[in-house]
Amino acid sequence: MTAREQKAQRQIQFARFSAPRFGRWPAVIIAVIVIATLSVVNSWAGDSAPLTEQQRIEQVLNRLGYGPRPGDVERIQKIGLDNYLREQLNPERIDDSAVEKKLAEFNALTMPCEELIQQLHEEQRAAAERKKARAEVEKMKQDATTSPASDQKPNGAGTLRAMMAEGALDEHVSRFAVGQLQNAKIIRAAESNRQFYEVLCDFWSNHFNIDVRKGPCRVLKVVDERDVIRPHVLGKFRDLLEASARSPAMLFYLDNAQNSAPRQLGPIEERTRERIRAQVPGAVPDAGTPGKPRVVGGINENYAREIMELHTLGVDGGYTQKDVQEVARCFTGWGIDLRTGKFQFHPRRHDDGEKTVLGHRIPAGGGINDGEMVLDILARHPSTAKFIATELCRRFVADDPPPALVDRVASVFRQTDGDLRKVYEAIIYSPEFFSSTAYRSKIKSPFEFAVSAVRAVSGEITTAGPVPLNVRCALETGATFGRGGDRVANARRKSLNLSILELGQPLYAYQAPTGYPEDSRKWVNTGALIGRMNFALALTERGLVDVQLDSKQLLRGVDIDNRDLVLNRLNHVLLGDQLTPATRATLQRQIHDDQSHTAYTVNVAQLTALMLGSPEFQRH
Predict the structure, then answer these.
(1) How many structural domains does the chain have?
(2) Farthest-apart Cα atoms in the chain, separation
(3) Residue 22 lies in a domain
(4) Is residue 17 one of the residues assigned to a domain?
(5) How far apart (Å, rounded) are the C-alpha atoms in residues 487 and 200?
(6) Would you say 387 and 317 are in contact if contact means Cβ atoms under 8 Å apart?
(7) pLDDT tens across 303-362, in order?
(8) Bridge-partner residues for 460, per DSSP?
(9) What are 130-149's pLDDT values in tens digits?
(10) Residue 123 domain flag
(11) What pTM was estimated for this model as a whole?
């Protein structure tokens, strides 16, 4: 038995063992789907046959968007694929008012940075007050049990204070800011007409990854997404890089707010620092050593290393540890105003000496311009062109992008001084993008899978429901932070956001600065695929609290008593007629052997879920 056959046999055994625990799926169906999906060979084979017109349209809808809705392929056939691509490359010309209207109630997304950080500070004060109140109540209980007058009732002051603290906390935007940010991303991906723009925002937000679970990033990422990522994804890379370098969320996440040249504090500055600290909840006074001048600051290399390794040059981009140290010196003083949450350059913290970065001399006395020079050097370095081209080709073409395409795209990057719109055009108009090798060769991430499933079944995301939006967003924020996990896991009906979290991709919450992998093979394992099938069933059986379905769009009058016609219709709408003979045979066996319903009527919800869980739908 070959290694591949042994692996397949192990997967079948695992699937048969796992199926009863993960849902109602017959073991043979689980086995077929798991094996077919895991057997994807994602290597570049050189020239391949051209795609048909329908396949070209599907490639665009799947790679430059989050999959087709019923009727999308026919609509693009009418207007022409080239016209559609021109629209998507110029999203400002596309009407997206329906989505913007739906997002109008997401109040955290439009709040100024100062207000968001103030809300966070107030929440921290309320939490401290609540903790203090609970301690007082606990002390009163202990005193009551040990005091001779134990029959006297406590005055309740501590309890009242705790209730007031709880009530105040409920009003704070920072409790639900993360949930609003996540839901806005989902709504835009599922319903926006600017599909390519939303995919680009997802790519670059992941490229410049920030984990919302780290301190004030829970509110600062709202500002980063709104003011850093979304306005710059179709501009010059240099502008996007600088916006990220000045992002308060990034400065905090990668610790550059702490990056400072060591220095002695004078008495006036020391008093000023302590006065500012007193205004920030949780800030610990720094008493220093009595009788000695206080030395503060120190070089922090975290951002310097990641801006080269992950944001620009790549791990093999030709930099050294000395370059990391020099770049860190250049970015000393790039920090945050703790009171407003905004970017602030602190001249007193800056190392103003001469530096050398990647062979470029940076003169002494440059101040904030030292960091600007580093951004210029990195943005225009050949390794950056190669690294960005590779990552974009990996996202849009293949997990192992063809070297010839990467070289051409990198050349466009250099020739246009990092004009991202021109770079995207070089990819999407390339023969490699429209090749049969690239077609349906990548596995969808959990986010891509869930959103594309909603789009495929013509689902609509609603912000209304029995639970107010901000209450639901607060619960989802808590789940993202790891709180209330048991309650979420045992909930009979979940939101789309929580479903994506359970599928393994909590949005904006990847701890490592690398972000989620662009190599789609990282998402493939048996347990994850079974989880996707169960999600698909929850979706089609209307088990998601915030998704409404119009099943008429799927069948369009097809008689549900004719099982083969239903199968053919779902194959056309959901899979673009790409159902393989092996999967078709498995599904036909399932619908004809199904004893849970009458002899003729198809269980449309279950068959649709099986289609969404099929290998053909997992790929894009």
Answers:
(1) 2
(2) 91
(3) yes
(4) yes
(5) 34
(6) yes
(7) 999 999 999 999 999 999 999 999 999 999 999 998 899 999 999 999 999 999 999 999
(8) 548
(9) 778 887 777 777 777 766 55
(10) no
(11) 0.87
